[in-house]
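Internal ticket - ligand job 1721, adenosine-5'-triphosphate:
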Amino acid sequence: MIRFIIRRLVLLVPVFIGLTLLVFTISHILPGDPVKLAAGPQASAEEIASLTREFGMDRPLPQQYWHYASGLLQGDWGQSVLTRRPVAADLKIYLPATLELVFAAIILAIVIGIPAGLLSAITANRWPDYLIRILSLASIAMPRFFLALVLQLVFAMSLAWLPLNGRFPIIDLPPPTVTGMLTLDSLLAGDWLAFTTSCEHLLMPALAMSLSPLATITRMMRASTLDVLQQDFVLTERALGLSQSLIILKYVLRNAFSSTLTVIGLYIGWLLSGSVLVETVFDWPGIGLYATKAIVTQDFMPVMGVTLSIGFIFVLVNLAIDLLYGVINPKVRYQ
Amino acid sequence: MLQVKGLSKIYPARRGSPAVTALDDVSFTIAANSAFGVVGESGSGKTTLTRCLIGLEKPSSGEMLFEGRDIARLSPAQLREMRARIQIVFQDPYASLNPRMSAQDIIGEPLLIHHDRLQLSAPARTDRVVELLERVGLGVRHLHRYPHEFSGGQRQRIGIARALAVKPDMLILDEPTSALDVSVQAQILNLLAELQDSLKLSYLFISHDLGVVRYICDRALLLLHGKVIEEGPVDQVFDHPRSDYARRLIAAIPDVDPAQSLHLAH
Amino acid sequence: MTNHNGAHPSRWQNWQRSIYRFRQSGLSIAGLAIVLVLMLIAVAGSWIVPFPEHISGGINTAARFKPPSSLYWFGTNELGQDVFSLVMAGARVSLIAGFGVVMIAAIIGGLIGALAGYAGGWIDDVLMRLTDLMLTLPSLILAMAIAAALGAGLDNMVFAISMSWWPGFARLMRGEVIAKKEDLFVQAARALGASDSRILLRHVLPNVMSPIIIKMSLDMGFAILAVAALGFIGIGVKPPTPEWGSLLSLARGYLPDYWWTAIFPGLAIFFAVLGFNLLGDGLRDLFDPKARR
Amino acid sequence: MALLSIENLHLSIQSFDGEAQILNGVDLTLERGEICGLVGETGCGKSLTGLSVSKLVSSPPARYGQGAIHFDGHDILGHSENAMRALRGRRIGMIFQDPTTNLNPLFRIGEQMIDVALHSMGANRWSRSAQREARERSIAMLERVGIHDAHNRLDDYPHQFSGGMRQRVLIAMALIGRPDLLIADEPTTALDVSVQAQILKLLFDIVREDNIAVLLITHNLGVVARLCTHVAVMYAGRIIERGIMADVFNNPSHPYTKALLGAVPTQKTRKGTLQGLGGSVPDPYLPHEGCRFAPRCALAEARCREAVPPEADLGHGHGVACIKAGVSA
Amino acid sequence: PHAQAQTAPRKILVVASNQDVPNFDPHVATGYSASALLRNLYDPLVRVEGNPPQVKPHLAESFSVSPDGMEYIFKLDGKAKFNDGSPVTADAVKYSFDRLVRLKKGNAWMIAGIVDENSVSVVDAKTVKIKLAKPFVAFPHVLPWLWIINPKLVEDNKGSDDGQTWLKSNIAGSGAFMLKRAEPGNLYELEKVASPWKSGGGNLTGAIWRIIRETSNQRLAVQRGEAHMALDLTSEDMDALKDKPGVVSIIEPEFRTFSIKLNTEHGPLADINLRKAISYAFNYQAMLDSAGYAQLMVGPLPNGIFGHDPKLVVPTTDLDKAKEFLSKSKVPNGGIKLTMVHVSGLEQQRRIALVLLDSLKKLNIELDIKPMVWPDMVASTASPDKMADFFPVYQTANYGDPDNIAFAAYHSSRNGNWQNPVYKNPKVDALILAGRAETDQAKRQTIYLDMQKQIVEDAPDIFGVLEKRKLALRSDVQGFIFTPVASNAVEFFPLSLK
Ligand SMILES: Nc1ncnc2c1ncn2[C@@H]1O[C@H](COP(=O)(O)OP(=O)(O)OP(=O)(O)O)[C@@H](O)[C@H]1O
Ligand SMILES: Nc1ncnc2c1ncn2[C@@H]1O[C@H](COP(=O)(O)OP(=O)(O)OP(=O)(O)O)[C@@H](O)[C@H]1O
Ligand SMILES: [Mg+2]
Ligand SMILES: [Mg+2]
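stdout (structure tokens):
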């Protein structure tokens, strides 16, 4: 197992190199000149030139890449041309906020989606199944940003049950930063009030984000459960008298879950990438907003930073899922 | 007609799986107008042998002489020509026909591919296809049907007709009946026997059903893990096997003979 | 269970069976209905709406923010434009954009996947590593960056989204081609001496098209969503093109008072995506009943 | 009273194409110590007959018409699912064709076996002692079907076993509840001949030692000849000939049985003399009258097409459903 | 639910804004949000206050101007000290001006060419002399935006970039507030210093600059009492806030122009008749409607500013006149397609573009609207052939003097910059320079009247609107006085919370 993990980790190195290369190439072949903006409206040509030099953007691309890549190794993710803040420092602030959101969403999706899918499959073509299927189809079609708006409209604006936006009440100090995820940090600080407060803030955005993965997990789970129920071994298990509940909750569940697992991995990447849609509505200070700001100002260091960090997280999450998959599926494990 | 000498095929080790010696120093000769059987258990290398013979796979060592020329060393043009001489019929009649082509397209395809040599006009091709269909016991009415509209036995007939289209001298039959019911199998076996007589074909007949090989073949070869265990005329191989393994294997064949019953042994 | 029992249904019977299966599912029918209505609106949109001039940017600032009424079914917006007319016209934009994305992605991905799958070896390795890498890139951010760099406009947006969309098709295509390549009938063709191009065009491709088409129909809805998402972020079409995501994005500022400006474009996206998803599901059941239930 | 008796069983399946008459009056009896081979061409209803005995055919789409199945006095078709569970695994064991797909790949052999053992013991799943006992039984059973070092192999996963061993495991699971009846649906078809021979021998030994009844479903006549005491030949959802194996094989009376036997090449068959059987199995969706084999039968005459031929008794339980039984071809 | 137990009565003002403050270096940062925070963290020599805006003493308790307007002498307040306790001296003032001029960033453009490295001299510890390189009457009006930094702290952390890295996130000022917490993109919290050198002021103990991007969310935050002040509200928001309890709306005119620049140098609009045709075809009422709380501009200068001519004759919507001009142009029947760019996401610009599109239809001219990111727009102004036909700009008066807008928007030396990409007219140039130097108010007035007439004659712009400043306050905020320059860069010191 350890050897397997190590081998997988070693295999990540070329993936990461490829990732940096790809991101770098894409961001540098796109048209746009962030320096001009950074220099300000009154800047002269010389000022712009000197700034370009300062950011090393006059050098040939391979050299720039080399500079960037070697910086990455030392934890230097470059600097925003516009704000001149180091990208790494920014990411340290924004990434946890988004991760908190994404994890909350995916946990919601799993906790609700798996049982719902299972229920749907075992009641196939009866009313609970129809209900769940219609709901999940509708959920998949629901744009996250629209749902977020509707939630906000109903629960914050009209009913005023939940806070409108943000991660924490404005004038209160959040718990001391450890992970950067406020829910975790408040638990670590033993501050129950802060925990419930941050959960209140988290609820709507997480819900808006989780709907699509939830529905997809439900559908996947339903489909794979039905698939598994068709498998020969289920017939054998039934023929040998095992009870329906044992068969479903033990034997079928694990098989069905193993095929749902990959979807979860894919969804984490999808959520990270699309976090901006929900972050915009809830003014959630995460990487989505950060990236958008950088994108519209063509400030490519932050864009590269975000893209790479999402890519890295995506790859790592999928590695973790592969490992988990190995735990579930012995055939994979022993290879 | 076909002479195989010291043929070996090693699949190199790949991620997660070790190297496999699929064929290990296999030698045999097939005479013209004879049926040569290859038997062996699953994974013994039977299919690998056929793939080498029709040039889909490069052998690791050894030579396969078809009328004196080594198949593995043919130029692409020569290989194409050779492919018209040696044809193959596959095991699974459900998977070996393109589901999107009609019987006419399927049987006519080799005629098209070898058009440069056969020079058949379109109507001539259709005539030939009809002739072939009739040859294998089907008819004009089947011309425009698609594979899913045929039964297993009929599909296998189409497979045979396709193989016969370019007038080969030799047919390789890789378990042509193992996916079929016994009743249908009998039809196909009879058809094969009849074709061999009338067209003077040679067969390389692969099967794990020893009864079938004994029935249809003149000589047979027994493979185990890619090695030749036994080779000779069928009667000798089956009735007087030299190796233990062959003896055990032959004893294990359940014959349709109540005298074999385990109940009698006790 | 086996379906190779004595009777062999004809093609037409197969079709009948598929259509029966399709008709059995009320949801698929609903999907088809929605999609047909959408298409109708997309084609006839500018003739049937009450205020066609608003679609091309006409304004009427004397009637700003009128709530829904018999004159303005969905109310009017900040420039006095009829929201109903804009939402109707948005159907065409979304349909064209969604279709464009799916087509371009399918063509690029299909070519790359088919090449990788059929050629194998290092070509496969290189192309697939590239595809995998593209898949690890955050798609929306990538699309946003490309679209922002190229500037606003439907074509740029479609291009940008397709650039992050093709890897899915490439993977599917490669998998299908590899599976089919190993199929006996392909080997049979090879054994007959058929050329690579013949094998690819005559034997492999026709047999891998249905999963591709199914994916295209399933992806239509998601492509429409992606288009709307870019519009919502504000990186989308050029004014005055009425696009649902941008309409919704603009309307956000007017919540909750002028809710009609937001709710109707939002619902339009929802129903369009729902329609295509339902239809896609139905088609998948139709062509590939084993795939999913 | 016979251990298993199937009387005039009818089964139809509903689908788009209409209602397919799959079983058309299956009659079969089985006693302890008997191994009855159920043979016939593909699609004739062998598996559905076997599954019906454990009531494992899902209905809908299937629907039972006339007929009954009695197992040791129980009316199977009238039983509730719970009552059936009490029989399955304890009184009726089943093995299926493909050993690679009939074991759950994600669970250890032991885990799967122990669950079955616990069920067969009727014990509380959570009781420590029951668990231990179930484990002991599993080990003993695995040893019995010829898996050495069973104690350690319990912790292996299915993919670590060869096909033959997996089939042994499945047999062990089916036998662990000491059933009275074992239904084996093509248990050796996926195996190599030598492995097949071992499995047949294993089954034979078990029947002799435990005096159980076996319904062996196969289309391999050689297997029947080697293992079975009795044989039932099925065609289009009906048993058309049955009796003691040697009787039937030596004196096939139904033209179909004859044709089947004639289609298998044996040592003595000379090249080109094999008797194929023309035509194909009838479509269960089409309505029919009379003997269903008539269209393929060389001896068929007008009255064959009019009424379903009743079963004629040729003595010693040798029955044949053909009005021309005994007429030589 | 508020998580913290509160010991002392905290009076924290929460300000909702959609602008981040990426940089706290007072000589580098730009943008209103930076101005807002900097004016509370740092002190300038003089302040601007009231409506109409007046220059008030600050670090300088008084100043005098030489009669030719070229030399300013500032007397510093003896009490003034930096927050590390050291006094604010003439050296610090010189150090700050020199740094600003050296860096040429941030607000340095306001005094570019006017104050150079030799201008500032120390007379004594509390007296500074600034000698202008060129005459500049509006000089006192720009001073409130030029901050004085603590030389010692900056020298200690100078690094290789003149302390820019350090000052980006550290404060070296004398303001009444200190930076307590900074979460870029989210919020910045200021805390009142224990004893500000300046006496008086309100009761605030701190302030939070909270970034809320969506204006409707800002409005809701004020409505729900989560914020005390919202800075970026739209007219729709103001309508929604009307009669909401506990909310005070402020809708005041200010000197911020919004108009459409035409490409007078390249393309069809180089034709003055076409420009005039369009000016007359434009639907000014629709623009006003869609702008909400606003007034139409009369000519190039903001209404009400010194020198503005309210009686100036400017184009109004008049289709007959438009057609007349069109028939005199090179495209008498229209049939052409023009382009307009705008900043994507800037709603008012999009609206005005649509108004233009709608108006041009009447001349049978098509309009291609291209939303762009700001950097691209800036880049497109570099040369006339890259610039679009129509280019909308907001121009904020950073100081209440006509020179501000006149020079930036119409002087040909600014060509190639976004405020005045292409327009040049030697006569106008001369008038602008004369206006800068003229100290006699009456003469200055006539100079600007001439200039306005000349500009209207050239029709380089479609004169747009002056949007009113729209702010919302909680009613418990006290001491707020509106000032029409940089009015959303709020000074916290005088404010109190009930
Ligand atoms: N492409 C390949 N790569 C690696 N190993 C292979 C490959 N093809 C076949 N083998 C291995 O070579 C051996 C012989 O395989 P082959 O298919 O020739 O057996 P076979 O006798 O045809 O078996 P069966 O009766 O199951 O068809 C097997 O162990 C198989 O796993
Ligand atoms: N669920 C089902 N729905 C529809 N038809 C079915 C179903 N299950 C079985 N059948 C049909 O019932 C008939 C009998 O099936 P069964 O599996 O009993 O055949 P079999 O004799 O076991 O064949 P084989 O030798 O191929 O296993 C076949 O024609 C089959 O197509
Ligand atoms: Mg093989
Ligand atoms: Mg069966």
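Auto-summary: Chain B is about 40% helix and 25% strand. The CA atoms of residues 149 and 155 of chain B lie 9 Å apart.
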